[in-house]
Amino acid sequence: MTTRFRTVHEAFAGACLRYPSRPFLHIPAQATAGYGGQPVDWTYEGAGERVSVLQASLRNAGVQRGHRVALMLDNRAEFFLYWLALNALGASIVPLNGEASAEETAHILRDSAAVLVIALDVRRAALAAALALVDVVPPVHWLDEGQVPAPGGPATASADECALVYTSGSTGAPKGCMLSNAYMLAFGRWYTSLGGLCALEPGAERLITPLPLVHMNALACSSMAMILCGGCIIQLDRFHPGTWWETVAQSRATVLHYLGVMPAMLLQLAPDDQDSRHAVRFGFGAGVHPKHHAAFEARFGIPLVESWSMSEVGAGGAIIANVEPRHLGTRCFGKASPAVECRIVDEGGADVPAGAAGELWVRAAGDDPRAGFFSGYANQPALTEEAWAGGYFHTGDIVRQGPDGAFHFVDRKKSIIRRSGENIASLEIEAVLNQLPMVRAVGVGPVDDELRGEEVMACIELAAGHTATRELAETIFDAARERLAYFKLPGYIAFVASLPLTASQKLQRGVLKEVARRLVEDKSAFDLRGMKKRPASHVGEATQ
Question: Which of 5, 172, 217, 421 could form a disulfide with 427 if both were Cys (CB 3.0 to 4.6 A apart)?
Fold first, then answer.
C-alpha cells in the first residue's frame, strides 16, 4: 500500500474502507472474565461506527487538538475506541497503569498536564489515591457513567503528538516519551514491510498479545501493524500460562507477541497435545532466555523472532532477527537494516574494536537522523539533547557485534532492571527505601532470574540498633509496598556491612551487580519473591 496517512485515525479509517467486514478486534471471553465474561468481536466497520459516536461525544465535551487525555482503561476494548476517537480530534493519550503506585500516577498526571482522565470504575480507589497528591485535579470520566465532563486545562501537546508514554529511566522518576503520529505510522510500516520470518498477509493476520497497552509494543507495534495491514488484534488482559495454547488455538491466531518470561513459563508446563494445535507462524518479541530459545521452537514449532527497540527509538533504529541465521541461544537480535546507522562505543564515545562489547548508539540513515524516533522527553529538552549527543541516540544497552554483523545483547549500562518486560529504575526504589528509619544506605540492582529475566535486588546497610533478620526484611518489603507497584518491590533483600562506593562516594553499580549475584548464589539474601503478588483485585495467572 502506498497511501501515506497523516494520523493513526486516518490509517484506521482507511482500513475501515478497505476491510469493512474483516475483524479488527477480538477479546476472548477468558480475558473479559472480570467484567461480564462475554467475548468482544468487532469488525473494522463496526469499530469505526463506535469511534465516530465517541468522537462526537468528546468533541461536544470540548476536547480539542493539543489536549492530553489520560486513559486508565487497562487492556479493555474501550482503550482502542478512546485512543482512535481522541486521535481523530488531534488529542494525545496518556496511558496510565492501574497497578502503578499513587505517587507514580500522580507524577504522570502532573508532568503530562492531562486535562481529563477516563477510567474504569474498578480503578476508583487507585485513581483517588493518586489524585489526592495532585494540586490541579483534572476531571474524571468513569466509563459508562453519563456524559464526558469538560476538559480542565489548556492544550499543551504538539499538533502531531499521538501519545505520551512514560518509561522508567536512570534518573528515577518516569519520563514521558512524546510519540507522534509519524512515529506510530512508521512503526506499523516497518513491521508490515519486514518480510522473511515475519511476513504479513494483508487482510488475513490475527495477532495475539497479552502485553499492556500502556507500553510501546502493544500500543505502537502490534496495533499499528494490524491496522495498516487490515489484520485482527487479539488483545488479552494479561498472560495466562495454563490456558495460553487453548486461547491461541480458539482465537485462530497467526502471530503472537511475547516477552522472555512467557517461553520460560510455557516450557514449565507438562507436554500436551495442544502444544502443536495452533496456526501461529511466528512469535515476535524480546528477551527469551538463551537456554529456552531452541527448546521452545523445537517443542512448539514456532520461531521466536528476537527484536530490539525502545520507546525512544521506535522504528527509527529498530533491529530484528527476521532472517537466518538467528544464532539461537546467544541473545542475538539481528542485523541493522540499511535504514539504520549504528555505532558501538566505549565510555569515552570511541568505537570499540570489532567483536568487543560497548554501548549501542543508533540513528536513522538519511537526512533526518531522528526520523521514526520519539519527539523527545516531555518538559525535559536538555535531557533529550543529552540523549542525542554526537548525532546518535545513546541507548544505554551494551551489545557486541558478531563476525556476520549480527548484534548480540550483553547488558544494560543504565541503572535499569528489566523484569518481565517492565523497565524498573533502581534509583526510584532506592529513593523509597532510603526513607525508612532502619535503612542507613541502600543499593538496588538486577540479579538474573530464569523465569522473569531479571529480579529486583536490594543490598541494605542497616541503621544502628537494627538486626539483620528475615522479619526485618519482610518489614522493609511491606513498607515499600505502600509506595511502589508490586513488580518494583525487591524480590531479594540482603543486609551488607558496606556498599561498594567510589572515592567520591558514588555507588559502583557494576560492582554492586556482582556482589548481588554472589549473595543470591550463596543464599545469603532473603528470597521475598513469593511476596510479590498483584493486588487482590486481580485474578488469574499473571505475567509478572
Answer: 172
